[in-house]
Structures are given as C-alpha cells and as structure tokens.
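Hello Y.,

Per our agreement to keep a running log of every chain we model this quarter, I'm adding this entry. I've kept the format consistent with earlier entries: sequence first, then predicted structure.
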Amino acid sequence: FTLTTRWADRKAEQFFAGGLFSNEHNFRQRNSHFVNLAYKQQLNSRLVFESRIYANHNESNGVAAPIPTSLLIVDGDSDEDEKGIRVLLKATSDTDARWLTGFEFRQPELVDATVKFSGLINQRFLLGSETHRNIRGLFGQYQDSLLKSINYTLGLRIDDYSDFGSHISLRLGLIYQHAEHTFKLLYGEAFRAPTRAEANLLNNPVFTGNPELEPEIAKTVELIWLHQQQEQLWSATLFSTDITEAINETTTTPRTRINEGQETIAGVEIDWQLEWDHHWKLRNAFTHIFDEARK
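Predicted structure for the entry above:
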C-alpha cells in the first residue's frame, strides 16, 4: 500500500484582468486537500493488479471590483469535493505481448457556489446548482510485434458522463526501430465534456453558463522521429489535430461559451536533450504552428 497526501494554499492580491477587473479591491484564495491510497500486487510472474482510491476537496474565495465601476464589490465562494476509484490489470504473454484493462469511477460534487454583491446591489445569489456528476471510464490496450523491428498498439476507451452522455475513443500506434532511429505513427482520440463553469454558471455579471453545450472531440495524427546518440536525444514531431464541436468563448456581455464547429491545428515540434553529467541535463524545445483554421 502507498498513502499520499497533499495540501496547498494559494493567495493572490491586487491582480487584474483586462476589460474585466481592475486591481483596486481584488483578492483570491484557493485551498485544496488531497488523499490517495494505492495498492499494487504481483499476482504471478506475468500478471499485476493495481488499484487506487482518492478524495479531493477544493475551496476558493475571491473578491473583485468589476470594470468600469468600483462601486460594486463581488465576493464569491465555491467548495467542491471529488471521490474516485481506479482498478487496473496488466499482463505480459509468453511472446512478450502486453495488455492492460481497467475501470475508473469519479464523482465530483459542487457543495457550495455562491456570490455576494455589495455596493450598488446588496444581495447573495447561487453561482450554480449544488449537484454532482458521475463519470465512468472503461479502457483497454494491447501491444505486440508484427516483425522484429515493428511494433503496434491498439487501445480503446469508453467514457460515460451522467450529464453529457457517452463516447468511445480509439488509439492506434505503429513503431519502427532501425539502429539508433525510431519512427512512430500515432492516432488518438480525446473526449472533453464541458466543465461546470462552462455549462452551469449562474448569476455572474461577467460569465454565464451554457447548458446547451456539447462535448469536444479531438482526433490527432502524429509522425515522430527519435534519434539516440550516446548522451544526446533528438526528436521531431509532425502533428495535426481536428477538434469537433470546439468550445470557444464569445465576446458578448456577459460572456459565454458556445460550440463553433470544427477547428484544425497542425504544426511541428523539435526537441533536443543533452546529458553531460549524471546531475545535469540541457533541453531545448521548439514548436511552430503551421495552420489554425476554423470551419
């Protein structure tokens, strides 16, 4: 068993957000507590069982004066709890093929979300409905060799949100090894449900939620080259990501989020690492975006 705990407290004063808040009366504090209990057991020479349960609590408080007037003070509070469990089974076959399968369950719950207006208005409002959502995930992955120098990966994940439905994501990979060079061709899908702030935010003079939002779905293709040379590692990645039902922020007042069709982002990443000592490493990374188009 492994027990992990974490506590964090962050404070910010006199910050500003262009066009939204001045820095005259602003204050923000965020406090979080996290506890994780993990268990790992070698069932036999080829089978490993892993599991974890966790609990997370976040509290935040913020005070701000919206632009253009400082005669209205906004004081907001939010508390959120999340509990979760994850179970994983990993195995290796006689031919060195590897597979894993697992299940996870998460339940984030909004305990308190209120805002108090002082000055021109003196009233307290709810920022969102104090409810929870259930998130379930089922996933599996298989890795094996086609030839001595060629490996492949097949992966599948099913996500189910109690408030946004289900989605099946696919993952494919083909890896070719030649001397000190490695080439990878990867395809992956990702599913992102709208956050509570994006979908359910209420009574906010700056942002408002949109309960009609649909989840974003991203599909990415990557071509990767790796070259290992003693203490140096070179890599170059060509990538292209298509996002369906992309969630973007409007310029209306109050602002909100909407689905804006499809976005495509493509580019190249180059990475160079040098390890000249056991205690020192130098790394340089460069990214260039070829295209960012909205259809």
